[in-house]
Amino acid sequence: MADYKARLEKMIQDLGKYSWVEIVEHQLNPAASDKDLKRVEDLLGAPLAKPIRDFYSQVNGLKFRWRIKLDVSEDKAKELRKISQDYQIEIAESDSDPMVMINFIPITESMIKRDWHELIDPQQGETVEFAGDKYSYEEFRPRLKPFDLFSLYSCAAFLIEQGNGDPKVLILDNHYYEWDNTRITDFDTYLEAVLTTYGLVEARERIFSAARGDLKPPLILTPDKIRQKYGPKLFKREGRE
Questions:
Q1: Domain ranges of the chain
Q2: Are 149 and 105 in contact (CB under 8 A)?
Q3: Would you give the DSSP letter of residue 138?
């Protein structure tokens, strides 16, 4: 079993070595109970996939955010922006649209307790096209279960289906209304992408955004591929200051 809790704690420790990083929020929830995991499996009608069960059986949600220190010098800010040619560096960013955020809610809150009535611009009576199939709005919306609420504008959500313990994962944009500008992925790839990119919100867009991405093959990436292609240059240099 992957030790997700240890990996999260190591990521936080590594960030602490940089003098210009400020940890703003850091909360790791206790493990989900077997009872709660069983409730989710009963909802899905299938055992949870190993990466999902392993993660939530160690950390039943987390909230983590870091930022560039507000008092960083102008010269240091210029240096960081020069290094970070892959991701934009923001200082004093908006709380509603942060540069960095990981906000995994407890699994029963995602899957069972919240009805997510705010999802998708209401289209009662109309059909939704997804991955080449058509659904009624009333059928499609309840299948979306957000789990990583990383901004007021975007989140990551499960798309559940009966009999599948490894539900698809996709990004919802525009205040969670839009679902068709994202590649379909799985929880393992999504979690690896979030951890490898230190929670950078822009990285999720860079990795998963694609117009009508639901019509493309699922984007399943190995940890090495994510690290090589999307690992932030900001943290690949030798120095820590």
A1: 4-235
A2: yes
A3: H
